[in-house]
Design goal:
- There is one protein chain.
- By secondary structure, the protein is an alpha+beta fold.
- Among the domains are: about 120 residues, conserved putative lor/sdh protein from methanococcus maripaludis s2 fold (Beta Barrel); about 80 residues, Helix hairpin bin (Helix Hairpins).
- About 30% of the residues lie in helices and about 30% in strands.
- The strands form three sheets. The chain has a six-stranded antiparallel beta barrel with strand order 2-11-14-13-12-15.
- The chain is elongated and about 175 Å long.
- The N and C termini lie far apart (about 100 Å).
């Protein structure tokens, strides 16, 4: 007999789960196609060229290579401003800070006591040598002159009378009519009157000098300063302050120091009779004031500074230099001809050398180490590393590395000078202060 089938699970058997209906094969394939389509869209979006990528110049590196080589700036040609090295002339200068010093400065003082009666000059004008300046009351000294002249006349009369008696005594002495002692006494009296007359003449000369001192004239040709004493005041010969100060303006000098290690070249040329040009510039080195020449040197080196003072003389016909003015001095010691020159701004600096970015014929740049010499007027002498005609980058170096592709705009020769430098390339270094870090990084990547 067959037992009826029970739907309850057997004791100890695992519980049965609800069975799902089997999926159709076509539904699973649909989901797979959707996933593949989404992956294809994502890949296309990622690898599809970005807008403008097709405009890149032929021969440029891929985006991955360009980003790695240029710090992520992307592929392309870098526009730069360049200049062509050329042969030319450059001057070697010694730079210094000078002080305008007059060749003559006179403080006018009185040599007699009296009242200041009149001032005959205008403040700030140029007076000629011998021109009247001030008048001091001369009347006391004119009266003394009259007294001296009166005493002279009196003593001259006494001398004449004594000479008459002496002649008479001489005749009587020959006749033995008077003793010899009387004659000798008369001779002494004549000599006494002669001394008195001579002393009177000295008093007259002194009185005349005092009268002349009352009329003060300019001892030099120069510029009159501000009046120090007004008319009506009593002045004395012992006064510490003067009446007025006169300063010679033409010619005028500039005193400036130079380091002792530069002395041999300067002194050798100066002692050989060579005329050394000395330029005077304003404090900002923007305007040349005038030209002069080295006149003399001091006789001792200042041990505290290690410098020797030099004096240059300038005609100063236009009064461009003023006493006690500070000026920049450029002493010309040498002129170099036919040397290779490049603009100062093209020279890149590192801690141990100098270099330029040289533009090659294939419009790529390479780093070229150079040795520089003199710098002046925005130009630097290249002793080694470049030849005339080489093209070097002036602007845009912060975007360059070894082998960068560039399009160079070469400027004209008269536009290359970026400013006035100084001897030894100091002006160039100043213009590159903001580029030293980029230049050093560029050199590191190139190496």
């Amino acid at each position: 007999m067959t037992e009826p089938t029970s739907s309850a699970p057997a004791i100890g058997a695992p519980p049965q789960q609800n069975e799902q209906p089997p999926q159709k094969p076509g539904s699973r394939k649909g989901w797979l196609w959707l996933l593949l389509l989404a992956a294809a869209v994502a890949a296309a979006y990622h690898y599809w060229p970005k807008s403008g990528a097709g405009n890149a110049a032929p021969g440029s590196a891929s985006s991955t290579t360009g980003a790695a080589g240029r710090g992520g700036r992307g592929p392309g040609i870098t526009p730069v401003t360049a200049a062509r090295a050329k042969k030319g002339d450059i001057s070697v200068y010694v730079m210094a800070l000078g002080n305008v010093t007059p060749l003559s400065t006179v403080t006018i003082k009185t040599r007699v006591d009296g009242q200041l009666m009149e001032v005959k000059y205008k403040e700030g004008e140029i007076v000629k040598q011998g021109a009247p300046l001030v008048e001091i009351d001369p009347r006391p000294y004119e009266a003394a002159l009259v007294q001296a002249e009166g005493a002279l006349l009196r003593d001259q009369a006494l001398l004449a009378n004594a000479n008459v008696d002496l002649n008479r005594y001489a005749g009587l002495l020959k006749q033995n009519a008077i003793p010899e002692q009387q004659y000798a006494t008369q001779v002494a009296l004549v000599k006494q009157y002669e001394g008195t007359v001579k002393n009177d003449q000295g008093q007259i000369d002194a009185a005349k000098v005092n009268v002349a001192y009352c009329h003060i004239a300019s001892p030099i040709t120069g510029l009159v300063g501000l009046r120090l004493v007004d008319p009506g005041n009593i002045v004395h010969a012992t006064d510490s302050t003067g009446l007025v100060v006169i300063t010679q303006m033409q010619p005028i000098s500039v005193v400036f120091p130079i380091p002792e290690d530069q002395l041999p070249e300067v002194l050798s040329r100066f002692r050989a009779g060579q005329r050394l040009l000395v330029e005077a510039w304003d404090r900002d080195m923007h305007k040349k004031l005038t030209n002069g020449a080295l006149a003399t040197t001091d006789n001792q080196i200042d041990q505290t500074t290690g410098t020797l003072r030099l004096r240059a003389v300038y005609p100063n016909t236009d009064n461009a230099l003023f006493p006690n003015q500070f000026v920049n001095v450029r002493l010309l010691i040498q002129e170099k001809h036919g040397v290779v020159l490049i603009p100062n701004v093209a020279v890149q600096l590192t801690t141990d050398n100098k270099y330029v970015y040289l533009v090659k014929p294939d419009s790529t740049v390479t780093v070229r180490d150079i040795t520089t010499g003199t710098s002046d007027s925005g130009q630097t002498e290249v002793v080694s590393g470049l030849q005339s005609g080489d093209v070097v980058v002036m602007q845009g170096v912060d975007k360059l590395n070894e082998g960068s592709k560039v399009v160079a705009t070469i400027i004209a020769g008269e536009q290359q000078a970026g400013g006035r430098g100084s001897q030894g390339g100091q002006g160039s270094q100043g213009s590159k202060a903001g580029q030293g870090g980029r230049g050093k990084a560029g050199r590191g990547s190139a190496q």
